[in-house]
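Quick question, first post here. What does this chain look like in 3D?
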Amino acid sequence: MRTYDLSPLYRASVGFDRMADLLDRVMSQDTSAPSYPPYNIEKTGEDAYRISIAVAGFTEAELGVEQRETELVVTARKAKDETQRTYLHRGIATRAFEKRFQLADHVRVTGALHENGMLHIDLVREVPEALKPRQIEISRGASRVIEAETA
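> Answer (accepted):
Ran it through. Tokens below.
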């Protein structure tokens, strides 16, 4: 297992405790983590993203998309099939799943679309005006003469 020294990060930054926790969690995850269902994450604009998940066999009613603060949770539960079917080959996996994605601060879900066996979730990063970079004007101070008090 690889270990990384994050001390240079701590020397040059303040308040990144959550990022360090996220890195620790990612690095300690089992490499045999389940990859079902397959998904893509793409950048669609300057501050826009899309997560596409293959959900063949699920209807919109069987899927759930929920944003909890900085976490996106996608779930799928197959409705109980009352008909008894005999499969000669079953290659379409319709097993229940829960997929979690960690979101950065100020990222929110703007919509979800179920189309052609794919679930597309659109996200956007909206940094509040108060947190955007701003230019600070440097004023020129008038020179002051300091007089010595005589005693």
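Residues 33-81+90-128 form a domain with the Immunoglobulin-like fold (CATH 2.60.40.790).
The longest strand covers residues 107-115.
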